[in-house]
Design goal:
By secondary structure, the protein is mainly α. 75% of the residues lie in helices and 0% in strands. α1 packs antiparallel against α4 and α6 runs antiparallel to α13.
């Protein structure tokens, strides 16, 4: 079905949102499996336990630092593409084809340095695909439906993440690292094929005289000085993902070493499954609510629930407590996922460069993952050297600090909102000029 023949109503339907979300399932399946299960399982055996946290943090940090550069660049190139089949999908397919050989290398690698280089390759290819893909919602979905569309994107992301972590965890528990990576490659390729079949882009807009890509990126970044709401939202998003990834990427090690569990892969899958299932259940109603009551309230509530979860996890003593305390994070993640993405789209300074600007949001998403994994890994190693066994408590405490700062920074967004009149960033009464207190943990 061709997008150009669809009415705005058709482009606001659940079936349409499901179709444009398929690619996200593949991407999140890959990263959920690699970051949550594969790296924590194989790196300690390569480098030893004394520097395991730093080693995991380093490979994630460098890979995602590269992603921060590649994604907006790829998004900017796709903004100006003039392919008859669409300006986003060709880059998505090219990126996936680039990724697959590096996934195989990860599965076969016996050395840390080779694993390191392979993860960098996956990041390059994955973000060649990811940057253009993030332009799909601004391209195809009307502003009044972006909260619901973002809810579907959030669900696809969460489903992919938990499935990736669960499937990879099962293979790793049996010592089948290569099979885990081949499964990741298969799922990613399948989701790419389905996206190619089910997503039909509108004809590309008339070409514009953008100039060289790097100059365009510099110009657009310069324009952000006058669009501070977008910048502050990215800061809050960065800190939220720093809080989230501080737990995700070290949970398996916490069960194995902190609690002495003999089946850490399975326990990790159960905890993250609980978090992500709750997030999925929350995302759709949260997307609906953000279209009617404003995005920022839900984003603030999500960050506050993350903070509460982190405080409780500092004192967790067993698996049951970890699951119970993580439920708050699950609900918070659902609220955040549905509303924050839609807010970012509403605050894009220029819809003609949606791919570039949504690619810049990865400075927050990937940057949060990179900074959190590195800082939490260093904290884990340093505190364990000083007070053996307390390193994981330090990681959870750091997680809480990041969520708290996320709420504080979010308060700056409201004073700089530059969204279009039909956006839902603020609640309806705020859009009409009424006064409202800044988001905080007591009045989200």
């Amino acid at each position: 079905m061709s997008t150009e023949s669809q009415s705005p109503t058709a482009r606001s339907s659940g079936w349409f949102f499901t179709r444009i979300s398929l690619f996200w399932v593949g991407l999140s399946f890959m990263w959920g499996a690699i970051n949550i299960q594969v790296l924590p399982a194989v790196i300690p055996d390569m480098v030893g336990s004394k520097v395991q946290g730093t080693a995991i943090g380093a490979v994630v940090f460098v890979g995602l630092a590269i992603a921060i550069v590649v994604q907006p660049f790829a998004g900017a190139v796709s903004d100006r593409a003039q392919f008859r089949i669409g300006r986003r999908r060709p880059f998505m397919v090219a990126g996936v084809l680039f990724v697959i050989p590096f996934l195989v290398v990860i599965g076969l690698s016996p050395y840390y340095w080779l694993l390191f280089l392979a993860v960098v390759g996956v990041q390059v290819g994955g973000n060649i695909a990811h940057g253009p893909y993030q332009g799909v919602i601004p391209d195809q979905v009307p502003p009044s439906a972006r909260g619901r569309a973002s809810g579907f994107f959030g669900i696809a992301n969460l489903i992919g993440t938990i499935l990736g972590a669960a499937v990879a965890g099962q293979f790793l528990a049996e010592g089948q690292v290569l099979l885990a990576l081949l499964t990741i490659a298969t799922v990613l390729a399948a989701m790419s094929l389905l996206t190619w079949v089910f997503v039909r882009e509108s004809p590309p807009p008339p070409p514009e005289s953008y100039g060289p890509v790097w100059k365009e990126i510099r110009r657009r970044i310069g324009e952000l000085r006058g669009k501070q709401a977008f910048v502050w939202l990215m800061g809050s998003r960065l800190l939220f993902f720093m809080g989230l990834q501080s737990m995700d990427n070290f949970l398996q090690l916490f069960f194995r070493q902190g609690l002495g569990d003999d089946s850490p892969e399975g326990k990790t899958t159960i905890v993250l499954g609980t978090v992500l299932i709750l997030a999925v259940l929350t995302s759709i109603p949260a997307g609906w609510a953000s279209d009617r009551f404003g995005r920022l309230r839900l984003v603030a509530a999500g960050s506050c629930l993350g903070l509460g979860s982190a405080v409780l996890l500092v004192f967790a003593q067993d698996f049951v407590q970890v699951v119970a305390f993580a439920t708050l994070l699950g609900v918070g993640l659902g609220l955040f996922t549905a509303a924050d993405w839609a807010a970012a789209i509403d605050l894009v300074p220029d819809a003609r460069a949606a791919g570039l600007y949504m690619g810049l949001t990865n400075v927050a998403t990937a940057g949060g993952d990179a900074l959190a994994t590195l800082s939490a890994g260093i904290a884990l190693d340093v505190v364990n050297q000083i007070a053996p066994g307390y390193g994981f408590r330090a990681v959870f405490a750091l997680m809480g600090i990041y969520f708290l700062l996320s709420v504080v920074v979010l308060g700056k967004v409201r004073t700089h909102v530059h969204a279009a009149p039909d956006s839902r960033v603020l609640s309806p009464e705020i859009s009409d000029g009424s006064q409202q207190p800044s988001p905080n943990c007591t009045a989200p």
